[in-house]
Amino acid sequence: MESQRLCGREIRAGVRMHSGNYRMTSFQAAVLRGQLAALRRNASRIDRNGQALDKAVAEAPGVRPLRRDPRITRKCSYAFAFLYDPEAFDGLPAPLFRRALSAELGVTFDSTYQPLNQSDVYFPHTKRRHQLSKTYRQAIDPRRWHLPVAEALHRHRAVLARWKVLACPPARSSAHRGDRQNLQASWRAACSPKEGGEDLAWRLRSSGRRTRVPCR
Hints:
Layout: H1 2-5, H2 26-58, E1 63-65, E2 79-84, H3 94-105, H4 134-140, H5 148-157, E3 158-162, H6 164-167, H7 180-191, H8 193-207
């Protein structure tokens, strides 16, 4: 039952179980159908806001947006992500940059999910169905994989905000300051090593405080 209702993280201290794909109830499916209808109405807004954020990041030093495949006509992302260059901020660690940006814009920024070899939810070798042989269990154990590129992106470069930053109407989100032009200016200032990054990091180190204004 635990593997059917949980995503795979710890059941209790030190006890984890790889999840199955059985957790959706009939009620959840009904809610999802309604949300899929809403997605059709909101997809264009999410795409426009994502492009505005990409443009703001592209114009700010020390960060860059992800490449957008020209074959994609409308992008409805799960989250908004971009890449951070620590060298442009005098080696400022990515976790501190994410916290400073969160404090400045009132939107929570974090990293990607953990790489597969360190994942909190992916450990198939613990499932009974995979206890075929010692060789097989070792072959599917993700801890044996070495993923230096994924690990470096997760720790040092990826900056990610959940879907809310894409879905909120600009006038209702504190991150947008009322319109896309002001949004872009806010991002440039917050991400700039000269105008915002060093000052944000200094304030964060000095006070340890963090502000967050949620989108309502």
